[in-house]
Amino acid sequence: MQLARIGATPRGGVCRLALTAEDAAGRDQFVAWAREAGCTIEVDRIGNIFARRAGADPARAPVMTGSHLDTQPTGGKFDGNYGVLAGLEVVRTLNDLGIYTQAPIEIAVWTNEEGSRFVPVMMGSGVFTGVFALDEVLVQVDRDGISVRDALAAVGYAGEHAPGHPVAAYFEAHIEQGPVLEHHGDVIGAVTGALGQTWYDLEIMGMEAHAGPTPMETRRDALVVASRLVARVNEIALAHAPNARGTVGFVDVFPNSRNVIPGRVRMTVDFRSDSEEGLRRMDAELQQACRDLERPNEIGIALKTVVNFPPRPFDAGLVDRVREAARAIGLPQRDIVSGAAHDAVHLAQQVPAAMIFVPCRDGISHNEIEDAQPEHLEAGCNVLLEVMLQEAGIALAEQAVSVAEGA
Amino acid sequence: MQLARIGATPRGGVCRLALTAEDAAGRDQFVAWAREAGCTIEVDRIGNIFARRAGADPARAPVMTGSHLDTQPTGGKFDGNYGVLAGLEVVRTLNDLGIYTQAPIEIAVWTNEEGSRFVPVMMGSGVFTGVFALDEVLVQVDRDGISVRDALAAVGYAGEHAPGHPVAAYFEAHIEQGPVLEHHGDVIGAVTGALGQTWYDLEIMGMEAHAGPTPMETRRDALVVASRLVARVNEIALAHAPNARGTVGFVDVFPNSRNVIPGRVRMTVDFRSDSEEGLRRMDAELQQACRDLERPNEIGIALKTVVNFPPRPFDAGLVDRVREAARAIGLPQRDIVSGAAHDAVHLAQQVPAAMIFVPCRDGISHNEIEDAQPEHLEAGCNVLLEVMLQEAGIALAEQAVSVAEGA
Question: Which CATH number belongs to the domain containing residue A211 in this structure?
Answer without folding.
Answer: 3.30.70.360
